[in-house]
Structures
1.
Amino acid sequence: MRAENSATRPTSIAVTAPTDAPGGTAAATAARPALRGTIQAALGVAAFSLTFPATAWGLEGFGPWSLVAVRSVLAALIAGGCLLALRVPLPARRHWAGLAVVAAGVVLGFPLLTTLALRTSTTAHAAVVVGLLPLTTALFSALRVGTRPSRTFWLAALAGAAAVVAFTVQQSGGALTTADLYLFGALLVCAAGYTEGGRLARVMPGWHVIGWALVLCLPLTLPAAAVALSSEPMQLTWHGVTGLLWVAAGSQFLGLVVWYRGMAAIGIPKASQLQLAQPLLTLVWSVLLLGEHLTVAAPLTAAAVLVCIAVTQRARG
C-alpha cells in the first residue's frame, strides 16, 4: 500500500523538486546560517586579537593577579546582569561539568597564564599560543566531540600553524623564554575550554555558555580580586583602565559570545581555523597601540595564512 500510494502522488514530488534545485530557496536558506556563523566567529577572532595588547596596557596600571581577577569579576557582573535581566533559567545539571571546563580553561587558565607570560614576553612572542590554538582545538574536538576532518583540512591546518609559528618565532628573535611554559599551558587549557564551549553552544545559546561559566567562577574570582588589589601596587592610568575594561567586556564576554555562536553554527574545526589570522591581527594592533615594529615577512605570512584559511573552510570538517 505504501509503495502504491507513493506512485499515485506525483504532485508532491513536483512541488519539492524546484525548491531543492540549484539556486532554490532551500539552498539559500541552508547557506545563511553558515555565513552568519562564519561572520560571528570572525568577530570573535577580531575581539581576541586585541587581548594581548590590551593586557599589556592593563599591566601598566595593575599587577598580573589583580588584572586577571578583576577582569573576571567585571565580566561576570556583566554576564550575570544579562542573565538576571532576561530571567535565564539555570542550566541543566548535566551541563555543569562542561561549564566547569569552560570556566577553568577560558575564564581562569588562559587569562592567568598569558598575563603572567606577558610580564616578560612581547606580544609577538605570545602570539605563538594563538598560532597553535586552531590546530590544538581541532585535535581536542576530534577527541572530545568525535569530529573527523578530511586529510586536506589537516594538511592546510598544519601548514597554516607552521607559517604562523615560524613568523612569530622569527619576530621574537628565535629565543625561548621562561614565559614559554605559561604559553604552552595556556594553549592546552584554552583549547579544552573552546572545545567544550563549542559543544555546549549546540544545546544552549553561546552567551549562556560563557555567562554561566563566568558566574560559576565568582566565588573564586571575587575574593581573589580583593586579596590581589590589597597586595599588588595599582596605578589608575588611562592605558591601564582601558586595557582592563577591554579584556573584561570585549575579550572575556562579548568576544566569547559571538565566538561560541559561530562555532555552534559552522563547527569547531572550521571556526578554530579562522584564528590563524589572529596573531597577524594582534601584531597589527601591537604596531598601532604599543609601537612595536614588523618585518617584511608580515604580508607574506598573511597571504599564506589567508590561503590556508580558504582551504580549511572549503575542506570537509
Note: The two ends are 41 Å apart (CA to CA).
2.
Amino acid sequence: MTRILLFLATNLAVMLVLSIAMNVLGIGRFLTAEGLDPTALLVFSAIIGFTGAIISLLTSKWMAKRSTGAHVIDPQAPRNAQEAWLVDTVHQLADRAGIGRPEVAIYDGAPNAFATGAFKNDSLVAVSTGLLQSMNEEEVMAVLGHEVAHIANGDMVTLTLIQGVVNTFVIFFARLVGYFVDRVIMKNERGLGMGYYAASIVCEIIFGILASIIVAWFSRRREYRADAGSASLLGSRTPMIRALARLGNVEAGDLPKSFEASGISGGKSIAALFASHPPIEDRIRALQQGQ
C-alpha cells in the first residue's frame, strides 16, 4: 500500500507541477480560452492511463493461467513427488521473503518461469515443463527464488504504476500536439477537426514507442534485483549463476506479450532498448560482482 500511495502521489505531483507551469507560462490560459482545459486533459489522461494498467494487473493471474494453460498444484494433494517438492520449495522461499505463500503452477512449454499477481499475499509462481526437465533441483530452486523475489519486491505493482504514469503522459502530450496541429497548422477554429484526431493517433504511437523504452529500462533493472534477491534467499549466488548459465544454453520459451516481462527469460527484441530482460551474460556478471 505504501508503494502504491507513493507512486500515485508522485504522479499527482508531476501532474500538478506541469499544470502550474503551463498556467505560469500562459499556455494554460491560452488553451482554456481556445476551448481546451489542460487540467481537465491531465485528469482525463490519468484516468485513461491508469485504468488500463490497473485492470491488467488485477486480472494478471487469471490471464496468465488461461493463456499458458497452467495447472495450479493443490498444495494438499500434489499429483507426484515433483509437484510436492515445487510447492514446498516455493512456500519455504515465500516464508523467508516474508510474503504470503503463492499459488504454484506448472505449464507445458520450453524453459521459462514467471510470477504474477496484484498482491504480495495473493500471487502466482509458475514454471514450465521444459525448465523442470532442463535444470537440476538447485537451479530450479534459484529460478523459484528469483520469482519469489519479484513478488517480495512488489515488481508487478511497481511496473504497473510506471506503465500508468507513462500512459498518462502519452495520452496528454499526444492530444496537446493534436490540438496545436488542428488550430495552428490546419487553421481549424471550430471544435476539433481531423487534424486533431490524426495528429493525436500518430503521436500516441510515437510517444508510446518512446515510453516503452522507459518501461523496458525499469524491467531490466528489476531483473538484476530479482537475481540478487534469489541469491539472498538461497544464501549463495552460485545457484542463480548456474541457472542463468543453463538458460543461456537453451532456447527459452516465449510468454504472452501481456506478461512477458514477468518471465525468468525475456523474448527476443528488435533492439536492446526495448528488451524486457538484460542479456544473460550481463546478469551473470552482475551476480559475480555482487551487484
Note: Residues 255-263 have pLDDT under 50 and may be disordered.
